[in-house]
TrEMBL record:
<dbReference type="Pfam" id="PF16363">
    <property type="entry name" value="GDP_Man_Dehyd"/>
</dbReference>
<protein>
    <recommendedName>
        <fullName>dTDP-D-glucose 4,6-dehydratase</fullName>
        <ecNumber>4.2.1.46</ecNumber>
    </recommendedName>
</protein>
<dbReference type="GO" id="GO:0009225">
    <property type="term" value="P:nucleotide-sugar metabolic process"/>
</dbReference>
<dbReference type="InterPro" id="IPR016040">
    <property type="entry name" value="NAD(P)-bd_dom"/>
</dbReference>
<keyword id="KW-0456">Lyase</keyword>
<keyword id="KW-0520">NAD</keyword>
<feature type="domain" description="NAD(P)-binding">
    <location>
        <begin position="21"/>
        <end position="327"/>
    </location>
</feature>
<comment type="similarity">
    <text>Belongs to the NAD(P)-dependent epimerase/dehydratase family. dTDP-glucose dehydratase subfamily.</text>
</comment>
<dbReference type="InterPro" id="IPR005888">
    <property type="entry name" value="dTDP_Gluc_deHydtase"/>
</dbReference>
<dbReference type="GO" id="GO:0008460">
    <property type="term" value="F:dTDP-glucose 4,6-dehydratase activity"/>
</dbReference>
<dbReference type="InterPro" id="IPR036291">
    <property type="entry name" value="NAD(P)-bd_dom_sf"/>
</dbReference>
Length: 355
């Protein structure tokens, strides 16, 4: 284990009101959550555990890396001795567990690695958290555990019917987490969120991939027909959802984090072409699109109800037009935040996905 970027010296923890462990904090969503927690909760110590995989970047955390209430620890959630020691030394009160293998396309070719990190790693973490008597354990799952649907909207009691290895590993991990509630009444909360977009997302995922391709004068590569639709939430809205669940989420409960804003991948490509290439001409737009082989399975839609989290006071606020403009601007300046990021733009094996 190695620690860096912290105002807090190594050794016995100083006194903070809460000590919060965020896993996967150098990745996309969790980096936004950490920045918000560090800035808005100076009396909380925020500990970021990340193994710094290919999609991670500590640049996502530059604005808070020297703050007194932030500490980065490089390590692997699958290393049970290390994780146990971490809970002993850091006296963790709350866990927000984001770390995972997240790229759906990759999950078809590296399925066992997804099972190992997402299922075994989560089991290691929840077991250590339980042993350490943590007061709240939030497991960040996905709408993909429901599988696809054309019209029936999923609520939290809908059955899990995942159709790809990524979604299956997230669903299996949920079962392990849930079992700690069933068996021990260990206070776990599970979230299932729609697709998230915004700054900091590694450009293997569909929105930053299309943006980066277009900004490099390359075509958007669309899986199959491009008629699959996805619901997109802006990063800051999702941060607020996690802070809501952190404060008000009830132990043993599952919360969908969704939005009615939905568009097809083809629509998405066209909209990005309009904004980046500044054209409305259908024929010019077609020149920026390339149709590639579809995934082995590709769910059509994930329609989801989110009344339960609305009941806690959360609603998405950022309009698409505003969120997508900020995202496009960010990638203009920050595409090189990751090592060898050009690889992410290649069509195979790393193709766009919707996680
Ligand atoms: N991005 C989305 O649209 C979306 C939607 C719903 C749910 N989720 C879930 O949210 C979480 C975060 O997603 P993201 O898109 O921000 O992910 P990401 O791929 O950007 O980041 C994942 C982070 O986890 C770290 N990590 C991976 N394996 C690790 C290990 N063994 N030990 C420690 N750290 C490890 C990586 O280094 C990386 O920083 C995931 O659990 C994902 O399933 C994401």
């Amino acid at each position: 284990m190695s620690a860096a970027g912290s105002g807090e010296p190594l050794g016995p923890p100083r006194s903070f009101a809460k000590r919060v462990l965020v896993t996967g904090g150098a990745g996309f969503i969790a980096s936004h959550v950490i920045v918000s927690l560090v800035e808005d909760y100076p009396n909380y110590m925020i500990i970021n555990l990340d193994k710094l995989d290919y999609c991670a970047s500590l640049k996502n955390l530059e604005t808070i890396s020297n703050k007194q209430n932030y500490k980065f620890i490089q390590g692997d959630i699958c290393d049970s001795h290390f994780v146990k020691l971490l809970f002993e030394t850091e006296k963790i009160d709350i866990v927000l567990h984001f770390a995972a293998q997240t790229h759906v396309d990759l999950s078809f070719v590296r399925a066992f690695e997804f099972t190992y990190v997402n299922v075994y790693g989560t089991h290691v973490l929840v077991s250590a958290a339980h042993e350490a008597k943590v007061e709240k354990f939030i497991y960040v799952s996905t709408d993909e555990v429901y599988g696809g649907s054309l019209d029936k909207e999923f609520d939290e009691s809908s059955p899990k019917q995942p159709t790809n290895p990524y979604a299956s590993s997230k669903a299996a991990a949920e079962c392990f987490v849930q079992s700690y509630w069933e068996r021990y009444k260990f206070p776990v909360v599970i979230t299932r969120s729609s697709n998230v977009y915004g700054p900091h997302q590694y450009p293997e995922k569909v929105i930053p991939k299309f943006i980066s391709l277009l900004q490099h004068n390359r075509k958007c590569c669309i899986h199959g027909s491009g008629l699959q639709t996805r619901n997109f939430l802006y990063a800051t809205d999702v941060v607020e959802a996690f802070l809501t669940v952190l404060k008000k989420g009830k132990p043993g409960e599952i919360y969908n984090i969704g939005t009615n804003f939905e568009m097809s991948v083809l629509q998405l490509a066209k909209e990005l072409i309009q904004l980046i290439k500044e054209t409305n001409s259908e024929s010019e737009m077609e020149n920026w699109v390339d149709y590639v082989n579809d995934r082995p399975t590709n769910d059509m839609r994930y329609p989801m109800k989110s009344e339960k989290i609305h009941g806690l006071g959360w609603r998405p606020k950022v309009p698409w037009e505003e969120g997508i403009k900020k995202t496009i601007e960010w990638y203009r300046e920050n595409f090189h935040n990751w090592k060898n990021v050009e690889k992410a733009l290649e069509p195979f094996p790393v193709q766009p996905s919707f996680v």
